[in-house]
From TrEMBL:
PROSITE patterns: HIS_KIN. This is histidine kinase. SUPFAM superfamilies: ATPase domain of HSP90 chaperone/DNA topoisomerase II/histidine kinase (SSF55874), Homodimeric domain of signal transducing histidine kinase (SSF47384), PYP-like sensor domain (PAS domain) (SSF55785). It comes from the Bacteria. Residues 248-468 form the Histidine kinase domain. PANTHER family: HISTIDINE KINASE 1 (PTHR43711:SF1), TWO-COMPONENT HISTIDINE KINASE (PTHR43711). Transmembrane segments: none annotated. Residues 21-30 have a biased composition (Low complexity). InterPro entries: HATPase_C_sf (IPR036890), HATPase_dom (IPR003594), His_kinase_dom (IPR005467), HisK_dim/P_dom (IPR003661), HisK_dim/P_sf (IPR036097), PAS-like_dom_sf (IPR035965), Sensor_HK_Regulatory (IPR050736), Sig_transdc_His_kin-like_C (IPR004358).
Length: 475
């Protein structure tokens, strides 16, 4: 009970003495006695015994005191206690607000979880990192909802009942998934905290998450890089082994093939010694040998290009001149199919811009493109060659009115030995020509572009760097 402040009654309502007058010993004794009497009477009033309080006041031998004075003292005490209670409540609210702000602004993600494992509150970092802001506005969220796998959910369910005020639960390397499906990784620390309400029997748990997402992603990136480097080394080793094998096999095949072709030519030179049937058979042997030798040469060419052993004689090259030479060689096939073949160059009076390339390799590429445009064309169709340029490149486009290709066929166009179903057509080939053409083009620093529409035809464009083009700034 708070200490009572003394209330002194003045006999007959006399005014108090001046403040600067020193009280006499008799007056001081009288005041102390009245204060003690008032305190005893006030205790009786608070106990509900008004008669005892009145008796105490009547028993005073000094100036008479009244119950009104006692009640006024009681009112003063109540007001003092009420003011003290309001101040204490204000301090408590301020302390609670301070702790709430401290929880909200913790530099780690923190969750408040009930005994059922439901998230009932979260600080700002947890709301953002785990995408809980919208979900917690509606209902509590199960903590297990944030685990990425069933294994993590089982680990969490087994840990939570073991957490006590003396024992902190630990879950390291937990794979999590936010409410929006983002992958996260964290170390969890779970400790028991007192209930919010006094006398509450249900414990609450504080779950703190130490985010390790950046570390895990960096570690996975390092592992992926190491695996990619290992796979690249394996691919390089396999490529080198393939190159050596193809080189040896091709060279071993060329010797007997040259012998077969040479002896067949000798036999065909003996006009009168072989009957007609035998001559036709020998001619087929020679044709088959030359066909197989051409295939071996193509395989060797691809092998050298992939191994980086191709030697180039780069110089200023006229694509128009190379196209004329190739057209002259392909003219018999053009005539057989009745095709209309045209070559369109720069406008009259304008000089042709040269390409920086190897002329022999350019002829090989154009021979392949023009040969395909003729072989896969329709009778009486057309083939058009068009020259063009820009600030850094020159090109020669070969267009035809042939059978064209689908998008699925274009996706596999440059795969070696893939004829895209043309093996069902009466057209001879190995499926290596376009693969070789693109390899040669890339070796010269160019690109080989293609457009095609089924039933309407195709357009291939050989793009090479200009001879006089200024060096391009690095990307």
């Amino acid at each position: 009970m708070a200490e009572h402040r003394p209330l002194v009654a003045r006999p007959g309502g006399a005014p108090p003495p001046p403040q600067d007058a020193a009280p006499t010993p008799a007056a001081a004794d009288q005041t102390a006695r009245q204060n003690l009497l008032l305190t005893q009477a006030l205790d009786a009033v608070q106990a509900g015994d008004l008669e005892a309080a009145a008796e105490m006041l009547r028993s005073d031998n000094g100036a008479p005191l009244t119950l009104g004075q006692v009640f006024r003292l009681y009112q003063t005490e109540l007001e003092t206690q009420s003011q003290q209670l309001r101040e204490s409540q204000l301090r408590t609210e301020q302390t609670l607000d301070w702790f709430a702000n401290l929880f909200r602004t913790l530099p780690v993600a923190a969750l408040l979880v009930d005994r059922m494992g439901m998230i009932i509150d979260a600080n700002a970092m947890a709301l953002d990192e785990l995408d809980l802001r919208e979900a917690l506005r509606i209902l509590p969220v199960p903590l297990r909802r944030l685990t990425a796998h069933a294994e993590g959910e089982l680990r969490l369910a087994a840990l939570l009942p073991t957490v006590t005020p003396e024992h902190t639960g630990v879950l390291d390397d937990m794979a999590l998934r936010t409410m929006k499906g983002r992958a996260r990784w964290a170390d969890l620390r779970i400790t028991q905290v007192p209930a919010r309400e006094t006398g509450g029997v249900s414990p609450l748990y504080l779950c703190v998450l130490n985010d390790r997402t950046a570390w895990v992603e960096a570690q996975r990136a390092r592992e992926s890089a190491a695996l990619a480097e290992h796979q690249r080394d394996l691919a390089q080793s396999a490529s080198q082994a393939k190159t050596q094998l193809l080189s040896r096999v091709s060279h071993e095949l060329r010797t007997p093939l040259n012998a077969v072709i040479g002896f067949s030519q000798v036999l065909l030179l003996r006009h009168g010694e072989l009957p007609d049937d035998s001559r036709r058979q020998v001619a087929l042997i020679q044709e088959a040998g030359q066909h197989l030798l051409a295939l071996v040469d193509e395989v060797l060419q691809i092998n050298r290009a992939e191994a980086g052993h191709m030697l180039l004689d780069t110089q200023a090259v006229s694509l128009m001149d190379q196209a004329r030479q190739v057209l002259a060689l392909q003219q018999p096939m053009v005539d057989d199919l009745g095709l209309q073949c045209t070559l369109d160059g720069p406008a009259t009076g304008q000089p042709e811009l040269m390409a920086l390339a190897d002329p022999r390799r350019v002829r090989e590429v154009l021979t392949n493109l023009l040969s395909n445009a003729i072989k896969y064309n329709r009778h009486g169709g057309w083939v058009r060659l068009l020259h063009g340029h820009d600030a850094h490149h020159v090109w020669l486009a070969v267009s035809d009115s042939g059978i064209g290709m689908t998008s699925q066929q274009l996706a596999h166009l440059f795969e070696p030995f893939n004829r895209l179903g043309a093996d069902r057509l009466p057209v001879v080939g190995h499926g290596l020509g376009l693969s070789i053409a693109r390899t040669l083009t890339h070796a010269m620093g160019g690109t080989l572009q293609v457009e095609s529409v089924p039933g309407e035809g195709s357009r291939f464009r050989l793009v090479l760097p200009r001879w006089d083009a200024p060096p391009r700034p690095p990307a």
